[in-house]
Design brief:
With 323 residues, this protein is α/β, with parallel strands linked by helices. The chain has 11 helices and 14 strands.
């Protein structure tokens, strides 16, 4: 059974995220009030029009009655009203957003599903890259491109850091193959890169050189791709984020070297040419508090009801026991 009325604070960094949040809450059996970002976005408009067309059909009237979509500049009075009625609340956003929304009183049994600020990275086996043929290489590079550029690294599961595993020589060769092909794909498919994005990447890169003690090299491959090399992984790496094709890189010889990087901030680990069960054992054997998702490259942005370690539908449902 559903909890009842759910109130959702939806993010602006992933324009159609609200549609997933709505779907999960409806599938759990709830009524839904969603606060959408007030920022205009073409993708959001398309989804809203499609949703409107669907709920206006007579056969969907029972579902339409359970949906209210709102768009307003942050207003404490409006938010407080809906939180006061919410049997369940879903908060997408940064840590500050979550902390602010938790200040509003809710019913005593109100359930919360909150998605905080997270960090994601990928791990690539250099020897695997060198062993595959050109067709497979092109496919793998397309997957890496999708993970990085679909949301311009704005999503919490978008990779910010690429970690190469192997010998120095194999890593050097593998990097050349991967980034050359990714940059070609990006040049063809991301012709909409604007001056502001390029300038923001340049400023971020300068900040990284100043603030990150481990930065050893910067390669501005193209307007679409900038690579920042760090010589050591540390637990503070999540503080350094890329945008629009700005990737931090590091090299390791053993997966055990990942341990200092992983804390509760880390959400998605995507992999290429790595045994996923070895990654699973790494997490379990070291009692790591981070990583909720281990997925192949190309699937970092795939959305399903298991997210950030939550079963969202179960979290927005109640179970009646009958003996």
């Amino acid at each position: 059974m559903g909890l009842g009325l759910t109130f959702h604070i939806c993010p602006s960094n992933v324009p159609i995220n609200f549609a997933y949040s709505l779907a999960f809450a409806l599938l759990a059996g709830n009524s839904c009030v969603l606060r959408l970002s007030s920022k205009s976005n073409r993708a959001t408009e398309i989804v809203l029009q499609t949703l409107t067309d669907l709920i206006n059909k007579p056969e969907n009237f029972s579902i339409a009655k359970r949906i209210l979509l709102l768009s307003y500049q942050y207003n404490d009075d409006i938010s407080a009203f809906w939180f006061s009625k919410a049997a369940g609340k879903v908060i997408w956003g940064g840590d500050s957003t979550i902390n602010k929304m938790r200040q509003f009183p809710t019913p005593p049994r109100s359930r919360e599903v909150a998605f905080a600020d997270r960090y994601s990275f990928c791990v690539i086996n250099a020897e695997y890259v060198l062993s595959i043929d050109n067709n497979q290489l092109q496919s793998e590079c397309q997957n890496i491109f999708n993970d990085i550029y679909q949301l311009d690294q704005a999503g919490c599961s978008s990779p910010q850091l690429c970690i190469w595993v192997g010998s120095n020589n194999s890593i050097l060769q593998a990097k050349g193959k991967i980034w050359q092909n990714v940059s070609i794909i990006a040049a063809k498919k991301r012709t909409d890169v604007n001056d502001i994005q390029v300038l923001n990447k340049f400023v971020n890169t300068c900040d990284a050189i100043i603030d990150h003690d481990q930065v050893t090299k910067v390669d501005i491959i193209s307007p679409q791709l900038t690579l920042i090399t760090v010589d050591k992984l540390n637990i503070a790496q999540h503080q350094f984020r890329g945008t629009s094709g700005q990737i931090y890189e590091a090299s390791i010889q053993s997966l055990d070297e990942l341990v200092p990087l992983i804390n509760e901030k880390v959400q998605t680990l995507s992999y290429l040419g790595i045994d996923k069960y070895a990654l699973q054992e790494l997490i379990i054997n070291n009692n790591l508090t981070g990583i909720d998702r281990i997925v192949p490259t190309g699937k970092a942005l795939n959305m399903h009801n298991l997210w950030d370690g939550y079963d969202i539908i179960a979290g927005l449902s109640r179970t009646i026991t009958i003996e």
